Amino acid sequence: MTAPMMCNQEGCDAAASHRFTWPGRDEAGVCAPHVDKLRAVARAMSLHLQLLPIGGPGCARCDGCGLVADSDDGEPWTAWAELEPPSNLAVQIGSVNPIPCPGCA
């Protein structure tokens, strides 16, 4: 069994929800909360950023992102990652966190 890909953002020890590739660089992983930051950096630099969800594209449990919330419902992490403040307060304070999707394991 291989270890899950981890987020490559400094100080983050979360499992990656997406794989990405900068032009001329090796593939790396990024967690759902850092996807928007990565997209913003790419936009600011006018670079193409290829982002691919980790997990099975047909996985109904995580919608193909590879992560679910550690909430009672275990909904796809994308549902939480797409929320804007203040709706994402539970994520900001750490009450809800991403975990690897058991359906993709």
Number of strands: 5
What strand order characterises the main sheet?
Answer: 2-1-3
Biggest sheet architecture:
3 strands, antiparallel
The structural domain count equals: 1
> Could you give the distance between the termini?
10 Å
Question: What are the low-pLDDT stretches, counting only 5+ consecutive residues below 50?
Answer: none
- Return the structural class: alpha+beta
Estimate the helix proportion, in percent. 10-25%
Portion in beta strands: 15-25%
H-E order: EEHEEHHE
Number of helices: 3
Rounded to the nearest angstrom, the radius of gyration is: 14 Å
What would you call the shape? Answer: globular
Mean pLDDT: 83
Describe the structure.
With 105 residues, the chain is of the alpha+beta class. The protein has one domain. Helices cover 21% and strands 16% of the residues. It contains three helices and five strands. It has helices at residues 32-44, 77-81, 89-92, and strands at residues 18-21, 28-30, 50-53, 67-69, 98-100. The strands form two sheets. Strands 2-1-3 form a three-stranded antiparallel beta sheet. A hairpin with a 6-residue loop joins strand 1 (18-21) and strand 2. The longest helix is centred in the middle third of the chain and has 13 residues, at 32-44. It is globular. The N and C termini lie close together (10 Å).
Topology:
Blueprint: E1 18-21, E2 28-30, H1 32-44, E3 50-53, E4 67-69, H2 77-81, H3 89-92, E5 98-100
Antiparallel strand pairs: 1-2, 1-3, 4-5
